[in-house]
Specification:
Oligomer: single chain
Number of strands: 4
Largest sheet: 4 strands, antiparallel
Radius of gyration: 32 Å
Distance between the termini: 64 Å
Helix content: 40-55%
Shape: rod-shaped
Strand content: 5-15%
Strand order of the largest sheet: 1-2-4-3
CATH architecture: 2-Layer Sandwich
Structural class: alpha+beta
Order of helices and strands: HEEHHEEHH
């Protein structure tokens, strides 16, 4: 079983970091750049690929919310819908002026951490499998050494010579 199956991560052979591609213009409020435009709204952005379960959990974690707050975006809320990151309580100017870079960095960190965990799990799994093969071979050798022959098929052991004869 692969590390991906254990952790919900990716295959360690063909990992591509999770990133963001572009704003989905069709999801923006139709009143933008008018007098009726909202100050803050939700911006949907396409991911480079579907997030893995572990990545999704990290994106939605309180650690990511704290990261956004530490970097100057305490009111931004992230949600994920399929292959889209929904960035609530923001606006395009805020994204252009720095939030997009902050989000890209966070996603890169998340992807790297998930990859590292997946690789560690794959190594552990491989080591466990190797140990199991070694153990199974040892059991088979031991079982093969068991002989079911009558006791009288072997000559009796020779008696030990007296101590005085051994010392000569």
């Amino acid at each position: 079983m692969s590390a991906a199956a254990h952790t919900g991560g990716s295959s360690t052979d063909s990992f591509s970091p999770l990133g963001l591609v572009s704003v989905l213009v069709s999801s923006l409020p139709v009143t933008l750049m008018t007098d009726m435009a909202p100050d803050r709204y939700t911006v949907e952005v396409a991911f480079t690929r579907r997030p893995l379960r572990d990545e999704l959990n990290e994106i939605l974690s309180t650690e990511t919310a704290r990261y956004l707050a530490r970097t100057g975006y305490p009111t931004v809320i992230l949600t994920v819908a399929d292959r889209r990151l929904e960035i609530a309580n923001t606006h395009l100017e805020e994204l252009r002026d720095g939030l997009a870079h902050v989000l890209a960095s966070r996603l890169a960190d998340i992807s790297a951490a998930v990859r590292a965990r997946d690789l560690a799990a794959a190594i552990r799994s491989s080591e466990i499998a190797e140990h199991e093969v070694t153990r199974a071979n040892a059991v088979a050798r031991l079982a093969g050494a068991v002989a079911f022959t009558p006791a009288d098929a072997f000559p009796p052991p020779s008696p030990e010579p007296p101590a005085s004869a051994r010392d000569r």
